[in-house]
Amino acid sequence: MQAFKDSGHLFRLAAVFVVGILLFVVLRSFLVPKSFGQYGHYRGDAMAEMAARPVNFAGHETCETCHAEVLDKKKDGKHAHVNCEACHGPLAKHADDPASVQPPKLDTAVLCVRCHEANAAKPKNFPQVASADHSSGLPCDTCHQPHSPAITNSAAGGAK
Amino acid sequence: MSITRRHMLLLLPAAAVAWKHVLAGTPESSPNYTMSQHWWSMLIDLPKCIGCGNCVRACQAENDVPDGFFRTWVERYHVSDYDIENPQVDSPDGGKKGFPPAKETSGKNFFVPKLCNHCADSPCTQVCPVGATFISPDGVVLIDKKYCLGCRYCVQACPYGCRFINPQSNTAEKCTLCYHRITKGLTTACCESCPTGARQLADLKNPNDPIHEFLKTHSVQVLKPYMATHSKVFYNGLDGSVR
């Protein structure tokens, strides 16, 4: 037992370690969010927080619940598969409160060329025009109805 | 002064309680959406892309992306006939305002929309020192803004250049695959606003998703397959010159 005669300092050191580890565990339990490690090495609640953000684009299903007549107009035309908000912009606020939030009036002279201005990089089968030559400055909806753009006899000359 | 065996025995249960507190989590909060039933990806049908920039504008409107930064952007490639190794790429303002007429119309010209590839083995999540970026159980690479230190490791690690530091929050930011939309049953803002259907959100765990048929019947490639990131953004008709 002679070797352990002065072992008191070892126990004191061990006590310091034990207290330190305990302090770490207790502090950690307060500082680390509960959901950390729920699915992996990250905060599980982060996903719910991200999912809770509001949307700006309502989605075409939402538009179609009210605007069935536009859907009818579109369905046989070339723009049948173009979603409403592709041209009209994000309108979730309008969908939430249709009376007070009105979508802005669109300018076809600006809108149509976004897609249909000729560019060598566009697919060859995509309808393209050099807008300056094509309409001599007239807005597109002088001749084309945006919801069903092919020019028919009844549509020609009719705006909107 | 020394801790006796008796003191030690008294302390151990307290430590056990504290540890259990550490390990406890909160249950999943959204009842209509089960993460384990989805594995999100995106299909980009390049022959349909017209470079209109609708996706870029929609993304900025939906996600409050600061000006000059992009969660998605469109590149225009010009590959000349004699130098297919060195394509000329331009992306003025990320393609947000469309593209000016091409300088050279010879050779090959096409658009390539880009976004986070939501890699299944993503390099960016592996380098995060604090667990702020991660792959969610439904296969979306996300950033926990509250945990991000802004150390920029992930920005360097991404082989596709899809991350940036938001100048306002000083945290890393990137495409979330519109996580707030897809968990509500909507498609992403870019897919919603794409006029030609060049972008399609796809759920690889949904057996009825048209992506399965598409992948079977088309030559589909991912960007930088040699990086072995197992990217989940699939490009149809991808030219070999695309970086």
List keywords for this structure.
heterodimer; A: 160 residues; mainly alpha; 3 domains; 8 helices; B: 243 residues; alpha+beta; Alpha-Beta Plaits; four-stranded mixed β-sheet; 11 strands
Tell me the radius of gyration of chain B.
Answer: 22 Å
Shape of chain B: elongated
Give the class of chain A from helix and strand content and strand pairing: mainly alpha
Main pleated sheet of chain A: none
Number of domain units of chain A: 3
Low-confidence stretches of chain A: 155-160
Major beta-sheet overview of chain B = 4 strands, mixed
- Average the pLDDT over all residues of chain B and give the rounded result: 91
Distance between the termini of chain A: 103 Å
The greatest interface between two protein chains, and residues involved on each side, is: A-B, 57 and 70 residues
Query: What's the order of the H and E elements of chain B?
Result: HEHEEEHEEHEEHHEHEE
Care to count the β-strands of chain A?
Answer: 0
Widest sheet, order of strands of chain B: 9-1-11-10
What can you tell me about this protein's structure?
The complex is a heterodimer of chains A (160) and B (243). Chain A is an all-alpha fold and 160 residues long. Chain A has helices at residues 8-31, 45-51, 60-66, 68-74, 84-88, 92-96, 108-116, 131-134. The longest helix of chain A is centred in the first third of the chain and has 24 residues, at 8-31. Chain A is elongated and about 115 Å long. The N and C termini of chain A lie far apart (103 Å). Residues 155-160 of chain A have low confidence and may be disordered. With 243 residues, chain B is an alpha+beta fold. Chain B has 7 helices and 11 strands. A 4-stranded mixed sheet of chain B has the order 9-1-11-10, with no helix packed on it. In chain B, strands 3-2-4 form a 3-stranded antiparallel sheet, with helices on one face. Chain B has a two-stranded antiparallel ribbon with strand order 5-6. Chain B is elongated, with a radius of gyration of 22 Å. Mean pLDDT of chain B is 91; it is low at 25-29. The chains are: A mainly alpha (160), B alpha+beta (243). Chains A and B meet through α1, α2 and α5 of A and α1, α2, β2, β4 and β5 of B.
